[in-house]
Amino acid sequence: MKKNQTLYSHVLDMIGVLDGVKNILLLNELELKVLMVAITIHDLNKLEEHSEKSYSRIISERNSKGEYANILKECQEFNIQDFLPEYKEYIEDIRAIIGQHSAHTSYFAENLICSPERYKLGDEKIEILISIIRALDVIDLSKTMDEQEKKRQFLNHINNATKYKGKQYKLVSHTISEDRGILTNICHNTVVEFLQGKAFVDVAYYKEGVLYLVEDKEIIFNEKDREKLVANCVKYIKSKIFNDFKVYINNVQSGIKVDEKCLGITSIENIIYEIKIRCEKSKIPDISKKNEIIKVIVAKYAELYSNEKLQELEGNISKLEMDIEGTTDKKVLSKIKKELKEKACLLREQKTGKNIFQRKVKEEYFIESNEDKLRFSEFIRSFYNFLKDHICTSPLLSWVEVYEFFSISEEDKDYLDAFEGLYIRPYVLGQLIYDDYKGMDDELTNRIIKYLEDKISSKESKDEDAMWVDLKDYFNRNIILSFDNKITFKKENALRKYSEKKSSKCCLCSSEYETSNWMAANVPYKLKIQNFSNKINGGEREPKRNICSICNIEYLLHKVTYASKVEVSRRYLSILPRGFNTKSYIRAFRESINQFKSKDISAIYFNEYSTFVALASKNVEEIEPLFTQAKINGIALPNYAETLTNYFILPIHLVKKDNETSKWISTLLYALTFNISFDSKIVISEFPVPILDQSEMEEIYVGEVPVPFRNIFEKSWTKEECLNTIKLFVNLFSLAKTLGETADIVYDSLKALAKGKTNFIYFIYKKIKNKYDNPTFKIKEIKDFVDGILSYVEDGETLVSNIKELALFANQNNIKGSINGGFIKDNSINKPLNIIIDLLCRWDKNIYTKEDITVLCKSEIQKYFRRVDPYYGKKRIEAIEKYVDLFMNKILDETLGGKVYNLENEKKNILSTYSYYYRLAMSKSNKSGSED
Fold first, then answer.
1. Distance between CA 98 and CA 80 in Å, rounded?
2. pTM of the predicted model, to two decimals?
3. How many folded domains does the chain comprise?
4. What's the rounded Cα separation, in Å, for the pair 24 and 487?
5. Which domain of life does the UniProt lineage start with (predicted)?
6. Do both 380 and 331 map to the same domain?
7. Domain range enclosing 533
């Protein structure tokens, strides 16, 4: 077993590898089942109950019936009878297999195999099964792709098992030299599928590549094979990106917009028909608001219109045109032309006013609330948006194109230009021409498609082809096959290419590929990848940034894999295997994702509250994340399960309104839960690739600890620390449930705990006091949870212990203030302590010594009790003196360093902690906390 690996995961890995290699082994169904039973129980010595026994003793102990007691017990624990009903007939075979699963059990093996007649499967088959279980056991110890010795042992055992079949095997591998998250995972899939077609047997899926078994003979793999492999990778990526172009078409307030990336992955015809469908389904705009705006514009132009002014301008223009024909003086000619231009603008305004005035008289200017006309108008607006975004250089030119396409008269152009171009004019135009195109829906759509296809420049298609050529080159450079020496990865070569490239480098990965300009707002800068880079986030003054084709493709792949219609606060959860994943484990994980997707579930919300509360009565290692269906927040499920392969990458959508420290706590809960539940290493960051490898971290990585929590969470996240922190959260959530609070109290409690143990008790005690008339009974209920939470932090233990000791002493000796009916109040519990603190805070060290102030404290408390307690006597006097000495020695001197200012700073925390433990002592001594 690997370090920190659970026995369950070890068995799962072994069975997963067996499932992958079973077709090259000489095993029938029965033999396979016997072997799987042996694998399931083979590590009996790892169980706590057998920790002091030798392995041979464990598997040799018999019950009163002469049966192997421990083997039978384990088989019954796992309900082996349901899997292999006749398993008892094969107990000797199972015992022989597990007894020799380790290569270090040679002495025992000799004695065990001396009577082969005991094995129902036969001696030869047992030897094969022993070789197989040894191979499976040792390969699970091979934690990295580079490790060699365990792989050599694995291959040796496999060949011992297959020699009876007359075949021998060798190990080969493929790796991808750069990790680009889901892009790399999809490439791994394609390479595996291609090599499986050449009789390669995939054994183990490491983060950086896959290990295979292949027959020990020359591998035929030529240049054409490599070209086909790379082409398959490109084709597969294309198929995923092209599969859903609709994610690049968005319904926004300004209309239906088509992202430029959409043009490269589908046809104009598909885009226009999708726009048409959306126009038919889109929300009908508020016509009354638009008509109000139109009414204001109409009134303005109608007021400007004057028939006399119109005729006068027409006459002036005619005269100016005649003057131009008869003038040769350049200076005069220039002046006349300028005046003519001004008059022409005024004439146009008057003509527009006349047009509008006539429509006003007939009331023909309003937008009708006819649904068909409105949807037709929306289609026109989408056509205008497409021209503006992808063909024309300005909105003005876009409207020129629209007018030309629909053959709008000059008079109507002037009328239309009077209205705002995005929210009003398309609807006015739709009203004007609807009747001309009524019943010609298909004809108009086909005309628009043909028109736009002719307008789209060839440059875009060339750029698109270049993008896929770059991806092909990228895969060819980075797919490394151990049996193909033509391509090898050397980091120094990559560094050299990086330094030699003089043109603009990609702002994300600094690769050698040519870049294109993106608006900085559209650059997904958090696609943080690569072995090295000059990545710098875009600043406010940087309108455009350089993006290479590989990052462009990766962005497109993320967009279609994790579609989100709203802006989210996103982190990426990377589940890294301790060594490798197996094909069967990957298949099972994908199937679980597909089950959710088949129910039209796009996200699952991790219910941390229910998860940790449910764990209160269990061992923390049994934690199981509980999920509920979600629309946005939670784990976003990929549209393509194939992106989950060598390791699993899943986006986490956090509650956007939460602050960053609260989000960090949420990511910590994800990391802790998935670390234990999946027995894997977990990385959570803003980037879709793990920024650390398994060997570079302990158990989890969740980024830099926020300042408020550094006192408690800045640590090396070992397995022990993870389990302890899960216990902390179990106690926090259980505390929240007991107090009837929401999960918000967990976050607030952690902030309080980070400031110190006494501060945490102050926070909780204040909550209880505000909520309950008699806090004493609730304190007893939460005592275990509070103790568990306090045990997580070492600092401040002495202060809490000393305050607790003082409170217990006070309770035992009834040192408290008077009670005036009802439940005991804090001012009564804290009365003697308040007297001490008040005197110390007013202590003038120039007048009183430490001994003086101590005597004064005792005297003042005694005065108080003489006044309120008719039974005040010698015993109480002695108790008060000891009480004051206890405070002075243990709290003031030992824990506060004798500093009065420390006492002043901690006053509220000390008083709350004192009250808490006093009430706890009351509840244990069966005192009701009320005055009879």
1. 16
2. 0.80
3. 6
4. 29
5. Bacteria
6. no
7. 458-557
